[in-house]
Specification:
single chain, 249 residues, alpha/beta, Rossmann fold, 7-stranded mixed β-sheet, two-stranded antiparallel ribbon, 7 helices, 18% strand, hydrolase activity, acting on carbon-nitrogen (but not peptide) bonds, in linear amides, GlcNAc-PI de-N-acetylase, LmbE-like_dom_sf, GlcNAc_PI_deacetylase-related
Length: 249
Amino acid sequence: MNNPTDSFEKVFSSKNKMLIVFSHPDDAELYSGGTIARLIAEGKEVRVVKMTMGEKGSRQEKVSEEELKKIRLKEDKEAMKTLGLKDENNIYLDLGDGQITNDMKIIETLVKQVREFNPNLVITHNPENIIIRFAKDTNWFNHRDHLYTGRNIIDATYPYARDLLFFPEHLSDPKYRSHTVTEFLFVDSYGHEDEVFIDVTDYLDTRIKAHACHSSQYSMQAARDSADFFTKLEGTDRRYERFRYVVTD
């Protein structure tokens, strides 16, 4: 591949607020850690919402869910600090690891985030594909939590956060207002015709350090390996995070 075009200015130049919605602690770093760090360094306001605490994400038999939840919360707070995220924009919904479904209760929870934060763009999981195709011989399953997280935040932005008669009780509180989002970046959409590349070369070390904060899940070497796997492209020494860029009516 020839050196791809950095789409940072194309996607973000006219935007001030980005809402990032992922299923688990460490998803943000894995899929978009360099982009988050670059956005914050550029003075953009970023809010990162974690749907669950990832409390089932361990194969260690002697670790309870409550113990792991505490560990992962501590790790994630340190990771978000490493990326430069403000505390007030670090959101934990704690909806139950492995229990994300596409239902109105979860949609309403996300509607509140959209109506309060008023983002210009949302970054989230691939909401369509059960099988993620990275390359010809490299595929993986789209985690159920990821699939439904993507669907829920799409539903929350359209039509529920926009239309005043959905959850009208929200609007009695002045911190909530009708809001429309029409631009999205979907991760895990490799090779899509709408794919864009965000140059994160100058933020790669920050991405790796933040990812390695999740030490119950990743070693420093594993974080480096992950960065290499997801950001290296043949034919260039620059590093890129990849997204499907969608603009809706």
